[in-house]
Specification:
Length: 394
């Protein structure tokens, strides 16, 4: 007999436009939907706590970041109270990372929830059911896991084994691909996969790709970079997780991408802050990125065990509100200062401006006037634009 399957994505605190955003698309639920359809069941996808007009035979609730666990549990409790006798399965990042936690298991027992850690083979082999979401792109994996053991990352705990695919061409159904691989370049078959994509066409049109987690710059070669460019990978990202003294290594990686045909302002650098390096050292790294004319991907550190995050950039806060790495000298003030500096610097790079001003950003000053203003002495610029800020200064 066909079963009605309820797939639930909790309403996490993301912008409304992010419900079906490439960074938050509930791919596990879409794979579960595809699996259940293949055995004759009827899957229904909902967002948050909804009063569905049927009694489901089985419920799946996904989780995301550990600091959004409240939204997860609120959603689970809502459906448990509504459907007392229906089995509820739970999975995702938070569930996987807290799977061994005694308090977590106790709460699962109290709510009669069955948790799953990592991936489930039967679901993983199923293609996501994109008929349940309105998107023009496809999420894809060419590998699972990661060969690195970065201390701030939970991938190696959730997916401890690195499992590469030799081919993905038969999985591609859309012209826009977003790779969710945690280390795409570590795949020993990466050249073969890239060559497949270079020749692949969907509905007569070429395929464009993006790698959500970026590329491991330590594995980047000019040959690979040229293949990535040829395959139409957009928005290349690399990481600068180490100290400022590693700047020459990062510069070499940027040069490889530029030699392959990417413009420097197309490149982004993941930089984790509020972590092991002080605000002052992160500012040196930020200014170096401005010198290279590359953008920075904002990565505020939150420990894998953090169960709350009430960060608000508009008010003064303490470590009771969100994680502040005080041992390394971070404060609420410089966490927000660094984030603000990164944002303003990225705007300068995108617009080829030497300095930032909110009047320029909001186009209250005509673009033509910028070129007149930039030729003035700095003191005169500040008279016209009092909030003028130069990224290459402290």
């Amino acid at each position: 007999m066909n079963q009605k399957i309820l797939l639930v994505q909790p309403k996490f605190p993301t912008p409304a436009k992010s419900i079906n955003h490439k960074d938050f698309l509930p791919i596990p639920l879409l794979k579960i939907a595809s699996y259940h359809k293949s055995i004759g069941d009827e899957p229904y996808l909902v967002h948050g706590k909804e009063n569905v007009d049927f009694t489901p035979d089985l419920i799946y609730v996904t989780s995301l970041f550990t600091y959004w666990q409240k939204e997860f549990w609120d959603t689970v409790e809502f459906y448990r109270n509504k459907f007392l006798d229906t089995q509820i399965n739970a999975g995702g990042i938070y569930v996987s990372l807290f799977f061994e936690n005694s308090e977590f298991q106790k709460k699962c027992n109290e709510l009669n929830v069955i948790p799953f850690k990592g991936t489930v083979d039967a679901f993983e082999k199923s293609q996501p059911d994109y008929s349940l979401v309105d998107v023009d792109y496809q999420i894809i994996h060419a590998s699972r896991g990661c060969k690195r053991h970065c201390p701030f990352c939970g991938v190696w705990e959730i997916e401890p084994k690195f499992v590469p695919k030799e081919s993905i061409k038969n999985e591609v159904i859309k012209n826009k691909l977003v790779f969710y691989d945690n280390n795409l370049l570590a795949n020993p078959f990466i050249e073969k996969i890239l060559k497949e994509l270079a020749e692949l066409k969907i509905k007569g049109k070429p395929v464009y790709s993006e790698c959500q987690s970026g590329f491991d710059g330590r594995l980047l070669t000019l040959k690979l970079a040229k293949l990535l460019k040829k395959v139409r990978f957009i928005n290349p990202r690399i990481a600068w997780d180490g100290p400022f003294e590693d700047w020459n290594k990062i510069e070499k990686q940027i040069n490889i991408l530029c030699k392959a045909g990417y413009k420097s302002k197309e490149i982004s650098i993941f930089m984790i802050y509020n972590w092991e390096y002080t605000f002052e050292e992160m500012e040196l790294k930020r200014k170096k990125c401005f010198e290279w004319n590359v953008q920075i991907a904002d990565c505020r550190n939150r420990p894998l065990t953090q169960e709350f995050d009430n960060y608000n950039g508009h008010i003064e806060q303490t470590s009771k509100d969100y994680y502040i790495h005080e041992i390394k000298g971070w404060t609420d003030s410089n966490v927000k200062k660094f984030r603000k500096n990164v944002r303003r610097q990225n705007i300068c790079i995108r617009n080829r401006h030497k300095f930032h001003s909110s009047a320029l950003e909001r186009k209250r000053v005509p673009k033509s006037d910028y070129f007149k203003i930039i030729s003035m002495p700095e003191n005169d610029i500040i008279k016209i634009l009092p909030d003028a800020w130069w990224p290459d200064r402290s």
